[in-house]
Amino acid sequence: MADKLKVAVVGATGVAGQQFLASLPNHPKFEVAKLAASERSAGKKYVQAITDEKGSVNWFCDEQLSEQYRGMLVEDASKMKVNDVDLVFTAVESDAAKQLEPIYAKEKPVISTASAFRYEDDVPIFIPGVNMEHDELIGVQQKKRGWKGFVTPIPNCTTTGLVIALKPLYDAFGIQRVLMTSMQAMSGAGRSPGVKGLDILDNLIPFIPKEEEKVEIETQKILGKIAGGKITPADFRVSATCTRAAVMDGHTEAAYVSLKKKASVEETKKKMREFGKEFTALKLPSSPKNLITITEDPFRPQPRLDRNAEGGMTTTVGRLRKDNALENGVKFVLVSHNTKMGAAKGAMLVAEYLEKKGKI
Amino acid sequence: MADKLKVAVVGATGVAGQQFLASLPNHPKFEVAKLAASERSAGKKYVQAITDEKGSVNWFCDEQLSEQYRGMLVEDASKMKVNDVDLVFTAVESDAAKQLEPIYAKEKPVISTASAFRYEDDVPIFIPGVNMEHDELIGVQQKKRGWKGFVTPIPNCTTTGLVIALKPLYDAFGIQRVLMTSMQAMSGAGRSPGVKGLDILDNLIPFIPKEEEKVEIETQKILGKIAGGKITPADFRVSATCTRAAVMDGHTEAAYVSLKKKASVEETKKKMREFGKEFTALKLPSSPKNLITITEDPFRPQPRLDRNAEGGMTTTVGRLRKDNALENGVKFVLVSHNTKMGAAKGAMLVAEYLEKKGKI
Amino acid sequence: MADKLKVAVVGATGVAGQQFLASLPNHPKFEVAKLAASERSAGKKYVQAITDEKGSVNWFCDEQLSEQYRGMLVEDASKMKVNDVDLVFTAVESDAAKQLEPIYAKEKPVISTASAFRYEDDVPIFIPGVNMEHDELIGVQQKKRGWKGFVTPIPNCTTTGLVIALKPLYDAFGIQRVLMTSMQAMSGAGRSPGVKGLDILDNLIPFIPKEEEKVEIETQKILGKIAGGKITPADFRVSATCTRAAVMDGHTEAAYVSLKKKASVEETKKKMREFGKEFTALKLPSSPKNLITITEDPFRPQPRLDRNAEGGMTTTVGRLRKDNALENGVKFVLVSHNTKMGAAKGAMLVAEYLEKKGKI
Amino acid sequence: MADKLKVAVVGATGVAGQQFLASLPNHPKFEVAKLAASERSAGKKYVQAITDEKGSVNWFCDEQLSEQYRGMLVEDASKMKVNDVDLVFTAVESDAAKQLEPIYAKEKPVISTASAFRYEDDVPIFIPGVNMEHDELIGVQQKKRGWKGFVTPIPNCTTTGLVIALKPLYDAFGIQRVLMTSMQAMSGAGRSPGVKGLDILDNLIPFIPKEEEKVEIETQKILGKIAGGKITPADFRVSATCTRAAVMDGHTEAAYVSLKKKASVEETKKKMREFGKEFTALKLPSSPKNLITITEDPFRPQPRLDRNAEGGMTTTVGRLRKDNALENGVKFVLVSHNTKMGAAKGAMLVAEYLEKKGKI
Fold first, then answer.
1. Are C239 and D305 in contact (CB < 8 Å)?
2. Contact across the interface for D298 and A54, Cβ inside 8 Å
3. CA–CA separation, B62 vs C306, rounded Å?
4. Cβ count near D331 (within 10 Å)
5. pTM for the complete prediction?
6. A135 and A226, same structural domain?
7. Partners of D212 in the β-ladder
8. CATH no. for residue D278?
9. CA gap D287, C272 in Å, rounded
């Protein structure tokens, strides 16, 4: 236990923060040393902090709440000291992240699920196995801001699956344009207020505020080339329509891709299958065996059936076929687990990589 | 009553056939003279034919089953004579349609919801207000086949909304390509076996067999130009991904359109708003006031909230905005009622038009 | 129009208040003269008051929002004068009702959907056709409180269907005990916060705070005998388990009843069928033709299929059969529309009755 | 491996049979030696037998299909020899069970999920930890029928949770009557045809054919006393209303119990908590640590949140409270996993017990 890194989980009482706690017990590299949340929770035992006035324990993960966290005292995130931890995971709203993360980053590495710093020039948005070479920016960031630590956010959960599926195509064939329609799970909207039952039953909601812009910009940045301490965004256009469906977890995305070079369906499938082997060969604790899983079942991927494949850490791609409307077009459907690879577990995998590489 | 046209409804016991019966009571132009179905139902009173062995009356429409049809005897569709009716509505599976429709069409006009004849050169696929000039093909068909009547199918229910939304854009600006992802209602799959509850709850199914091909081909044919008794399909490419969602009725479609001529969002919206005024001016009994309804609510259209607008006969278009990935791109979301405008009521509106024009 | 009663709708922007507005256009006896809501909405046009910051018009009824109300100014309920109206409908939370209703009732009749006054000795809880003789209490109330008007609430929406089904049994056979398990629609929980999609999909929630007590107490009071200006609660015990299901509208209730006198299934059915004929003979505008509709389909009643029967104003009872566990036991399942008969339209029907009887 | 018992799984391709295969890999006592199904599947590899004509692998369990079963050949159940196995698990429809089980039972023990033999005098219906002393009947059955093996079915999945919750109350206080309303999961209806999506979305179905009778009779038999090779059914009345809800797995049941002796809520809770300790002390491989889990959260148990507690093998009881309508009344809500403890895993636990006791 002595050699595990001590981590703080900020925003520990919220849905995203709980996902960290669901995944951290028995982690071979990290141990939870601190829990922090808003002032309202500060000073309470964790289990009390998530118990509401009606007596319900609001723990929302499938995994049981570990005994080791139940009795931990929750600190006030705005007053938390980070000098005695090695790493901070933040899972708070963007406004809070904007305030808190720079304070922590002065001293320690911060891996964040929030969007607050995603669009800063000196901040990489990591997807494990996709753009880890962007870690070059960490030094740039530290130098520019005078921080001993740093901030590295993960992308919006809808971006994650899309970029993972695009990366092998982009590397092998180049991309001209991408059009994507998502059917997103309710858990992506959180719980306060989240999606109302009266709004989603027997229904779909065709708009998620700010989501499409995030997907479009983040995709270009993550697939961008880094050189001289600067990312040049990928030079293809992305267009998204993001909708909400009556699904608990797992974002489904129907993508149309115009490649630069012509490629057969089999060739694109092969590139996807082979993708990320160097990364998965690191056998990081939270890593899937395959970043992409190809399904040949014509009726798959389906969110309920495929979201939990490889612990929610693989992106399942199916219905890969020729698209006749775009030049060198291919189209496919993917399912990515928005609260696993797309959130806390994805952030943990980033941290595991950075630890391995000596950046943490 | 004397001057109403006598109609036969074939496949009257099925879901699609019931939709005809739901809409025909009190129709100012048509009265139901005959009901037909498979041999199994023949000779029974209608209400008995739809009552199962457990005693449930399997009537699936929101509208009450009209008293006037409850006691009507159901005929065997394969033996039904059409000499004493003026018009036949068919709502049977494609295989049955292939056999039955030519028999009826020898004598009488047949308006069909089945796909059996959609792809024949001499058969128009009508969408009311979109391509009624294709009625020129009726004479060609009669001559070629030696029929006194004719067969005119309506399109697949997923095609209907898409083509209605595209038509004003096509006429005003031309179209280079269309990419569409649908999230379709369960009623489109019928009831035997239809979509299983265990398959669709907390889930989406990303594939509907044969649906994408139908949408792609039918769209080109319906928007094609007719000249010299021949339709030349529209010269743009259509690519579809058709998925099934946990929605009762109403297909939602996210479309991306590359126009030939550049057009602003406001211009495309204007063309959609103005669309079809000549057709709606006919004030046909089943006609909506507007073929397209534009919503400015960013969270609309939603299938549950918008499917029943104008009796399920208008196509609601929302989220009309610029698309940056395609040349002269616009994108939008539409909702179209798959069992109203997309099925029986759409077929009735075709019949009303043809009657008005003296073709029936 | 001159002879219509002028009504004020208080809480007009909420879900329950909207239900009044959905039902009042074209009402032969009532016309809306005032709309009131909280201070936040005061001074706005109605359509603006229900439009949120994202631009969505939050109108939640299936019926279209009538043009006549869109532009009406909303008043502050706490300052509204009632001298120029004849009748007040209130649809606000219990706390607000406790404050507002006495102010209005000083001058005018108040028909309320709130629970604030339900349990006062001098306040009747009306269910149309069940206990209208309790109107004797109105005079008692006015005298005791020195009001020119009065307050008469309708019951909790779960009580309504149960009591309607019990009333003919109680009158004919007497009742020893009633046990009821409800599976209630989400609309009963309103929208703020209402039931979360994440909580109800693929799930049931077995508890609704305070609901069971309301059902138990209200049932006894409504079926109580009035004499000498005092209601003696019915002398049988009621036990309820109230659960929430993934249903939009329509409460389903499984009831077990121990009668005082033995009765066959056919006799109980007959009493239910005959029930309320004097009341329905009044042909009040919102009245169903039958207070109870018996279904013989073994798979009915179902909330989606039966909630809208007779405009949501009839209680559909099915599966009426012998219960072997209770003395003289019968059991059945009922569906009652919680936001129609169980809310605004039920309150309107009460008002129509009282108007007819000269009490308003 | 040499000392594991060889088992045959009959009906291996169906949903219930798959549940056996989901639970048997790595079982310390049993290994699958044979798979059998209908003639249609015979001779195929297992994975082919569950692959449909569209290419979908119809494996319906959350657990992955184990590699060890994928390639096993499926036998024709009607021709399968059992001489080389030690135990047969059957998961077929009642009609097939009636024919097949006696053939197998001539030679070997048959643990069945089917109802075919449940109501025979010499056949015990086992619920693990509840009535294992009914194993006395096995000898009676063998003698009477001249079998070397025997047939012991488990109960209907709705009976299981109810009886487990009743048993400690029955033993400690006696029971006068039980009234129960269930809200059952769709998986209980299987897949052919199962529950249609169009029937269950935004809905409930208040009737499940034959279910209520099964619950009523089986409860009495399972809680009956055995003496002299004969079960005397428990002498209290059970009345059930069984409904279907839009839930994947996990039956929810609201029970009302009239005890013989007065007992406080705390006393009943204590008896439930202490229940079954002798059985769980056996630490059988599929056994939960607690047959009953009491929840104090007023909003629990919920099927989605509680069905998988202890691997789906515990019955979660909540909302235990006084019932005022019955003499010595208590009421509560329970959730029991219908396809785990209520089906295959329950049958396995029975087998594990009988093996331990030397009956297999």
1. no
2. yes
3. 10
4. 24
5. 0.96
6. no
7. none
8. 3.30.360.10
9. 49
Q: What is the CATH number of the domain that holds B146?
A: 3.40.50.720
Torsion angle of C-alpha atoms D7, D12, D15, D19, degrees rounded to 10: 30
CA separation for the pair A128, A89 (Å, rounded) = 16
Residue of A nearest to D197 (CA): A202
Co-location of C175 and C322 in the same domain: yes
Q: Do C324 and C238 belong together in one domain? A: yes
Provide the β-strand partners of residue C332: C255
Are B21 and B150 within one domain?
yes
C194 and C138 assigned to the same domain: no
Contacts of C208 in chain A (CB under 8 A): none
Q: How many CB pairs under 8 A join B and D?
A: 56
A61 assigned to active site = no
Q: Are residues B299 and B351 in the same domain?
A: no
Q: Locate tokens 């004929």: which residue? A: C277
Is A103 in the same domain as A239? Answer: no
For the segment B97-131, what is each residue's pLDDT rounded down to a tens digit?
999 999 999 999 999 999 999 999 999 999 999 99
**C319 with D252: Cβ contact below 8 A:** no
Please tell me the predicted confidence (pLDDT) of residue B2.
Answer: 57
Asked if A256 and A326 touch (Cβ cutoff 8 Å), the reply is: yes
* Relative orientation angle of helices C157-173 and C211-222, to the nearest 10 degrees: 40
**Letter for the amino acid at D186?**
M
Write out the catalytic residue numbers of B: 157, 251
Alpha-carbon gap, residue D22 to D235, rounded angstroms: 38
Which whole number is the average pLDDT over B268-291?
98
Closest by CA to B162, choosing from B302, B323, B334, B314, is B334
Phi, psi values for residue A69, rounded to 5°: -100, -20
B229: left (phi over 0), alpha (psi -120 to 50) or beta: left
Number of structural domains (chain A) is 2
Convert the pLDDT of each residue in C38-68 to its tens digit.
999 999 999 999 998 888 899 999 888 999 9
Interface with D, mutate which of A47, A51, A52, A56 (most D CBs under 10 A): A56
CA distance B261 to B271: 14
Identified catalytic residue from D134, D157, D242, D337? D157
Same structural domain, B230 and B144 = no
Structure tokens at C8: 């004020």
Amino acid making up residue D326: L
Q: Cβ of B55 and C300 within 8 Å?
A: no
Q: Which domain holds residue D279?
A: 157-336
Please, which chains are in contact with D (at least 3 CB pairs closer than 8 A)?
A, B, C
What confidence score (pLDDT) does residue C1 get? 47
Q: Give the closest-approach CA distance of A321 to chain B in angstroms.
A: 10
**Residue C28 CB coordination number (10 Å):** 10
Contact residues, chain B to chain D, C-beta under 8 Å:
54, 60, 186-187, 191, 193-202, 209, 246-248
Flag whether pLDDT at D1 surpasses 70. Answer: no
ipTM: 0.95
Among the partner residues C54, C186, C209, nearest to A197 by beta-carbon distance: C186
D210: which 2 tokens? 């034959």
Asked if pLDDT for residue A264 goes beyond 90, the answer is yes
- Which one, of C243, C239, C250, lies nearest residue C178 by Cα? C239
